[in-house]
């Protein structure tokens, strides 16, 4: 297990290097002079030359890449053209907002998805099974940006139950500590603000959770059906063990492997989907940070934002891979 | 004896042909029995017909503005209502099918062609070529796909054509990996070893034997990929990075509906419904095709 863990961690290095190359060449792939594109057609020749020099575009690409990589290793993600601030300094609040949203969405997706899958499998071909699987089919095909708008229309505008957008009440701003607002408000013991943050989180996290939830429910169902056909489960049921015991003690542990794979894969979808959800709900996360940077042609922010999200994705998949072995001792790695 | 020889002669060729015909026939038979897949195929056919006959079916011109009729609720005159320029939403949704299907189909075609070529080369030649191509696929798959598409469009500039290119690029590794694994298993088969032994060229083996034998999984994956491509194109359109107004692309229409949620929710309901139904159709059809053509992939 130790050798596998070490090899799996080492395998991440070439992928990270490759990713840094892709992101590095992104700005260099802009048709024409990137500095001119960033500053616009009306920019003076001096300004273009100054930006070209600042971005290091007047040097050979391999020199630029080595410098870029050296900077990344020191945690330097470049400087935002729009704000003039270091990206590594200003990125955390955005990243924290996305993490809070993604974690909430993933929790909803796992709790509802896994349980819906289990109940569907246990009561196979029942009305619950049919309803849950039809909903899951529709959920997989749902454009989340449309679902987000529908949620806003029904729950925020029509019923007025929840806030339309944002992360906090503008009139009652939160004093950030970790920038994860649920934690911050708890640390400050401010229940009123905690509830406000929770209310703001509900609609975007449900929109973001829909597709992973549908996929997790489908996979859990088929995986559980397979496990429940096995002799030891039949024996457990014949012995008269309660449903709860059979499902959660015996079946789930063996059915969880494919579910874990899907959860790992869905994280990428979730991080990508966060961009769309954040745009609809004006959620100040990294997706919105990148999206706004596109409007200002702020390429260092676009590059670093994409790189940071992709790196998180890689590490989540690494953790999921390592979890397989912990959950299922039958898995042996060569 | 001579009669026996005559009877035996065609044996090596005939079963091969019959087998390949029966695979597709068998697949079609099994697909026809799958009611959910047929519903999916019917939805897809419906949207294809909408796209083809859009000029005949659309009750109004898509760019016909009538400001005195702006943001009107659904009525007999305008079944889906009108948008902020007084344009008929039904007509725009019908024409939108053309754009979405066009982007979905051609982006996937691009991914299939490039992905298959790279996958075939990697799987067939192996060694360092395989190592390089496989690492490129790994790196591309390391990015959340929509994020990579956004990055590509940010570089190329926002337009429908660039969105199509971006969607094609991000799907290349999925097809490349699929074909590579098929090639790896097929190239060990006896008939490929035999073809090589009689001196058949690599190109002939690849394009006459290996590629045709990989068609079933390509079709299955391709159908499901069209569904994803349609959502991705709409997402880029929604973010203002794909089709640009006044193009009646469904994602772009949703983006403009954002400002009128309170006054005119119908401007948001119908384009979204169209995206969801088309995607659902391709997903159901793709699942059915997978069960029919490749029983090993059955979930």
- Number of separate strands of chain A: 0
Quick check: average pLDDT of chain B?
A: 86
- What Rg of chain B do the Cα atoms give? 24 Å
**Discrete helix count of chain B:** 13
Uncertain regions of chain A: pLDDT < 50 for 5+ in a row? none
Topology, please?
The complex is a heterodimer of chains A (334) and B (299).
Chain A: H1 2-28, H2 34-39, H3 45-54, H4 61-73, H5 87-122, H6 127-140, H7 144-158, H8 181-187, H9 191-228, H10 231-238, H11 243-280, H12 286-295, H13 299-327
Chain B: H1 2-8, H2 14-33, H3 35-52, H4 54-57, H5 89-125, H6 127-141, H7 145-156, H8 160-186, H9 190-197, H10 202-210, H11 215-238, H12 250-257, H13 266-293
What's a concise summary of this model?
Chain A: Its main location: membrane. Chain A: One of its GO terms (cellular component) is plasma membrane. With 334 residues, chain A is mostly helical.
Give a structural overview:
- The complex is a heterodimer of chains A (334) and B (299).
- Chain A has 334 residues and is mostly helical.
- Chain A is 75% helix and 0% strand.
- Chain A is built from 13 helices and no strands.
- In chain A, α5 (87-122) packs across α9 and α5 (87-122) packs antiparallel against α11 (243-280).
- Chain B has one domain (43-297): MetI-like fold.
- Chain B is built from 13 helices and no strands.
- In chain B, α8 runs antiparallel to α11 (215-238).
- Chain B is elongated and about 75 Å long.
- The model of chain B is unreliable at 1-15 (pLDDT under 50).
- Classes of the chains: A mainly alpha (334), B mainly alpha (299).
- The interface between A and B is large, with 47 and 43 residues.
Distinctive features:
heterodimer; A: 334 residues; mainly alpha; 13 helices; B: 299 residues; MetI-like fold; 73% helix; elongated; ABC transporter permease (chain B); transmembrane helix (chain B); OppC_N (chain B)
């Amino acid at each position: 297990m130790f050798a596998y863990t070490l090899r799996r961690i080492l395998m991440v290095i070439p992928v990270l290097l490759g990713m840094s190359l892709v992101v590095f060449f992104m700005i260099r792939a802009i048709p024409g002079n990137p500095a001119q594109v960033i500053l616009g057609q009306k920019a003076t020749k001096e300004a273009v030359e100054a930006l070209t020099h600042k971005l290091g575009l007047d040097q050979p690409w391999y020199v630029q890449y080595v410098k870029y990589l050296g900077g990344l290793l020191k945690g330097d993600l470049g400087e935002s053209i729009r704000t003039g601030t270091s990206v590594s300094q200003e990125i955390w609040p955005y990243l924290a907002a996305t993490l809070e949203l993604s974690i909430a969405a993933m929790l909803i997706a796992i709790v509802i998805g896994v349980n819906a899958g289990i109940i569907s499998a246990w009561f196979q071909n029942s009305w619950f099974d049919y309803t849950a699987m039809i909903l899951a089919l529709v959920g997989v095909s749902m454009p989340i940006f449309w679902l987000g708008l529908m949620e806003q229309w029904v729950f925020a505008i029509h019923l007025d139950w929840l806030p339309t957008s944002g992360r906090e009440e503008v009139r009652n701003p939160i004093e950030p500590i970790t920038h994860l607002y649920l934690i911050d408000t708890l640390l400050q013991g401010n229940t009123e603000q905690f509830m406000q943050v929770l209310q703001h989180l509900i609609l975007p996290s449900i929109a973001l959770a829909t597709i992973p939830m549908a996929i997790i429910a489908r996979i859990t169902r088929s995986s559980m059906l397979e496990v429940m056909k096995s002799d030891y489960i039949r024996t457990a049921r014949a012995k008269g063990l309660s449903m709860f015991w059979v499902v959660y003690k015996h079946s789930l542990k063996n059915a969880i492997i494919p579910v874990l794979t899907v959860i790992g894969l869905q994280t990428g979808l979730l991080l990508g989907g966060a961009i769309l959800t954040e745009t609809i709900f004006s959620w100040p996360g990294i997706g919105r940070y990148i999206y706004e940077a596109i409007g200002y042609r702020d390429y260092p922010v676009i590059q670093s934002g994409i790189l940071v999200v992709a790196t998180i994705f890689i590490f989540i998949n690494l953790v999921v891979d390592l979890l397989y072995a912990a959950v299922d001792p039958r898995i042996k790695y060569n | 004896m001579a009669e026996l020889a005559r009877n035996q002669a065609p044996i090596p060729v005939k079963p091969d042909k019959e087998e390949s015909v029966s695979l597709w026939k068998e697949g079609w038979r099994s697909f026809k029995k799958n009611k959910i897949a047929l519903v999916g195929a019917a939805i897809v056919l419906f949207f294809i017909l909408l796209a083809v006959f859009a000029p005949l079916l659309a009750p109004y011109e898509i760019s016909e503005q009538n400001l005195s009729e702006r943001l009107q609720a659904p009525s007999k005159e305008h079944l889906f209502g009108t948008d902020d320029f007084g344009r008929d939403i039904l007509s725009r949704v019908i024409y939108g099918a053309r754009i979405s299907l066009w982007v979905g189909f051609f982006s996937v075609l691009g991914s299939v062609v490039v992905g298959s070529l790279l996958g075939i080369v990697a799987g067939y030649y192996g060694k360092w070529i395989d190592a390089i191509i496989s690492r490129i696929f790994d790196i591309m798959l390391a990015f959340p796909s929509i994020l990579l598409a956004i990055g590509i469009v940010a570089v190329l500039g926002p337009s429908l054509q660039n969105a199509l290119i971006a969607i094609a690029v991000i799907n290349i590794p999925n097809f490349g990996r699929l074909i590579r694994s098929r090639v790896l298993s097929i190239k060990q088969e006896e008939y490929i070893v035999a073809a090589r032994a009689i001196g058949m060229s690599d190109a002939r083996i690849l394009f006459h034997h290996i590629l045709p034998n990989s068609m079933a999984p390509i079709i299955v994956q391709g159908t499901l990929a069209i569904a994803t491509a349609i959502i991705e194109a709409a997402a880029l359109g929604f973010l203002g990075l794909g089709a640009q107004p006044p193009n009646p692309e469904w994602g772009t229409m949703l983006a403009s509906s954002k400002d009128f949620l309170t006054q005119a929710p119908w401007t948001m309901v119908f384009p979204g419904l169209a995206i969801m139904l088309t995607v659902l159709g391709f997903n159901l059809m793709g699942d059915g095709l997978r069960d029919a053509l490749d029983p090993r992939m059955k979930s």
